[in-house]
Amino acid sequence: MQIQHNTYTMHLNDLPLDIGYASEKVSVKGEDGAFHVIGGQDGKTQLIICAPFLDHEFLLELQTIEKELPNGGTYEITASLVFAEPLKEKLALQRFQIFSDDKEEFADFYATKLSGEPYEGALTKALILISKDGAIFYDEFVTDLNEKFNLPTLLRKIYAAQTCYTGKGCH
């Protein structure tokens, strides 16, 4: 898959998993310096967003997503933001847990690592929605790093992921 950013063309190292495939629990490093597990089945809907960089426009996009996420109750969702390297600054985000992919487990399993300049080895801009049963329910890999995620579709998919799972095996 080709990924554009301004005049650069990069590629993903691997093909992303298809919708419906089981997600994998991976270890990522939190801002607290400890390793945490994201992905896999944990009984909650999980939104994982990754990106190669954080600029003002992307921060505004994340704040908009954060405001729209369901909060608590029956429709609990966890939100994670993953970068290849630890961020140097603290973000003004309340709902997102911030992680770095120190062991490259996330990049390897979820096929998010870029090759090519200027972001060689960084994570592409993507989101992965994992349902309560641990399946990849929806994903979005932007083809241009300046593109915004499709928020209306994401919100519909979150609702669908949370309401279709019965907890009793096959849906």
In short:
The protein is 19% helix and 29% strand. It is α+β, with helices and mostly antiparallel strands. It has a seven-stranded mixed sheet. A three-stranded antiparallel sheet has the order 1-2-8, with no helix packed on it.
Order of helices and strands: EEEEEHEEHEEEH
Major sheet details: 7 strands, mixed
Going by helix content, strand content and strand pairing, the class is alpha+beta
Tell me, rounded to a whole number, the average pLDDT: 91
Any idea what the radius of gyration is? 15 Å
Write the layout of secondary structure elements.
Elements: E1 2-5, E2 8-12, E3 26-30, E4 35-38, E5 45-50, H1 56-68, E6 77-83, E7 96-100, H2 105-110, E8 114-115, E9 126-130, E10 136-141, H3 151-164
Structural features, described:
There is one protein chain. The chain is an alpha+beta fold and 171 residues long. The chain contains three helices and ten strands, in the order E-E-E-E-E-H-E-E-H-E-E-E-H. 19% of the residues lie in helices and 29% in strands. The N and C termini lie far apart (31 Å). It has a single domain (9-164), classed as 3-Layer(aba) Sandwich (Glutaredoxin), CATH 3.40.30. The radius of gyration is 15 Å and the shape is globular. The protein has a seven-stranded mixed β-sheet with strand order 4-3-7-6-5-9-10. A three-stranded antiparallel β-sheet has the order 1-2-8, with no helix packed on it. A hairpin with a 5-residue loop joins strand 9 and strand 10. It has helices at residues 56-68, 105-110, 151-164, and strands spanning 2-5, 8-12, 26-30, 35-38, 45-50, 77-83, 96-100, 114-115, 126-130, 136-141.
